[in-house]
Amino acid sequence: MSKLPITEADLHAYVDAQLPDSRRAEVEAFLAAQPEEAERLQAYLAQKEALRQLFDPVLDESLPAKLLDLAEPQAAPVDVKKRPFLSRWSAQRIAASFVIAWLGGAAGWLGHGQYQASERMAQMTPLPRQAAVAHVVYSPDIKRPVEVTADQEEQLVKWLSKRLGTPVSPPKLGALGYELIGGRLLPGNTGPVAQFMYHDSTGQRLTLYVSTENTGGRDTGFRFAREGQVNVFYWVDGKFGYALSAGIDKGELARVATAVYDQLEHK
Amino acid sequence: MDSRAILAELPRLRRYARAMVGDRAVADDLVQDTLERGWSRLAQWQPGSDLRAWLFGIMHNLRVDQLRRPGLSTLPLEDEDIAVPIRATQTDQLEVNDLTAALARLPEEQRAVLLLVALEEMSYEQIAATLGIPTGTVMSRLSRGRERLRLILEGRPTAAHLRVVR
């Protein structure tokens, strides 16, 4: 066999055991004569080993429920009221897995529709950003921070519920030191959304953004986002998306967000 | 693509995602998005073909999309993180994981190739197919990534000469 020059690619293939036997012998002969190169390859082998040691434990971790849920088409009934979107998805997944087994190509249409829906979602402004922008625009307004003030709370609730097409009401945060200032109607991605504004005794303002546009997303736990000076906690529950924004620190905002979440869950 | 086959790939997808992005929750979100996109693109999967390579490819594309898209970086927060004060662990990470820090300093594209080789033990051709790049590019990224990682771990400057891959 004619001896080709040893290349960098050969050396890596040697490290990764991807060389044919005959070539491996040639590389070994080359390395015997080139201790510096041998040392370099030794370091690469050590890297591989160290990476395995570092990340292999992930293989043994128990799988998060949300991933198991997505791996397994579910036949068990899902609480439709709490998780309308997920259950619809699961049904589609079950359908998809049967269809692909029996009809092959027809499954494509199911997938196609889902994909388009998720693409449309991606083009919309994300909830935390919408909320943060609304917060930045309205909360510094001294004279007209809200359209309807808290002394007309009943009208505010009636009006916003009517415009959003579903009952919405501001949570009570007095126990946390935040009083309702009032609320307003805002344009969202596809229709009306509501904003409630609160302040504490120092004048620090906090806004709760309530969207009912979550037709394509999934329920989420608390998530945190930061836009400039504004911290935002947000979560999705069924068709509702909630975002709590303020220029206060994350821990304090988390405390308020937890209270808001609890009230909305138990309403 | 059935659920058992996917379930079997989950631990590997998680391991790779963790190594790529570092943060556990962010990595799991990436895996979650991968599964969702996988289901939505079932029609594009050729039954009998390599499911692992297909899923890794989807994850790679999602990651590329993520990095291209500017925007808020969000981090999921578990409920218990809010109420319970916890000890700062940043320094632990630094002490325990020089390698994690070094890995994070590699360009994304080099890190991907390095991890697919080291963790997944994919052949160079499989990696090329998964990432949608020529095998020659796989080799040059692997070469640069390994050398850069070596220099970082040895505490040497990383602007060293690049080896030519023939």
Compose a concise summary of this entry.
In chain A, 48% of the residues lie in helices and 17% in strands.
Q: Which keywords apply here?
A:
heterodimer, A: 267 residues, alpha+beta, Phosphorylase Kinase, domain 1, 10 helices, elongated, B: mainly alpha, Rna Polymerase Sigma Factor, Chain: A, Arc Repressor Mutant, subunit A
CATH H-level superfamily title of the largest domain in chain A: MucB/RseB, C-terminal domain
What is the CA-based Rg of chain B, rounded?
Answer: 18 Å
How many distinct domains of chain A? 3
**According to CATH, what is the topology of the largest domain in chain A?**
Phosphorylase Kinase, domain 1
Count the E strands of chain A. 7
Distance between the termini of chain B: 39 Å
List the helices and strands and how they pair.
The complex is a heterodimer of chains A (267) and B (166).
Chain A: H1 8-15, H2 21-33, H3 35-55, H4 57-60, H5 65-71, H6 84-102, H7 107-123, H8 127-138, E1 148-149, H9 153-164, E2 179-187, E3 192-199, E4 205-211, E5 223-227, E6 230-237, E7 240-246, H10 250-265
Antiparallel strand pairs in A: 1-2, 2-3, 3-4, 4-7, 5-6, 6-7
Helix pairs in contact in A: 6-7
Chain B: H1 3-21, H2 24-40, H3 51-68, E1 75-76, H4 79-83, H5 90-96, H6 98-104, H7 108-118, H8 124-131, H9 135-153
Helix pairs in contact in B: 1-2, 1-3, 2-3, 3-8, 5-6, 7-9, 8-9
Can you walk me through this structure?
- The complex is a heterodimer of chains A (267) and B (166).
- With 267 residues, chain A is an alpha+beta fold.
- Chain A has three domains: 8-59, no CATH class; 70-121, no CATH class; 125-265, 2-Layer Sandwich (Phosphorylase Kinase, domain 1), CATH 3.30.200.100.
- In chain A, 48% of the residues lie in helices and 17% in strands.
- Chain A contains ten helices and seven strands.
- Chain A has helices at 8-15, 21-33, 35-55, 57-60, 65-71, 84-102, 107-123, 127-138, 153-164, 250-265; strands spanning 148-149, 179-187, 192-199, 205-211, 223-227, 230-237, 240-246.
- A seven-stranded antiparallel β-sheet of chain A has the order 1-2-3-4-7-6-5, sandwiched between helices.
- In chain A, helix 6 runs antiparallel to helix 7.
- The longest helix of chain A has 21 residues, at 35-55.
- Chain A starts with 7 loop residues before the first helix and ends with a helix.
- Chain B has two domains: 1-84, Rna Polymerase Sigma Factor, Chain: A (Orthogonal Bundle), CATH 1.10.1740.10; 87-166, Winged helix-like DNA-binding domain superfamily/Winged helix DNA-binding domain (Arc Repressor Mutant, subunit A), CATH 1.10.10.10.
- Chain B is built from nine helices and one strand; from the N terminus they run αααβαααααα.
- The relative contact order of chain B is 0.11.
- Classes of the chains: A alpha+beta (267), B mainly alpha (166).
- The interface between A and B is large, with 64 and 61 residues.
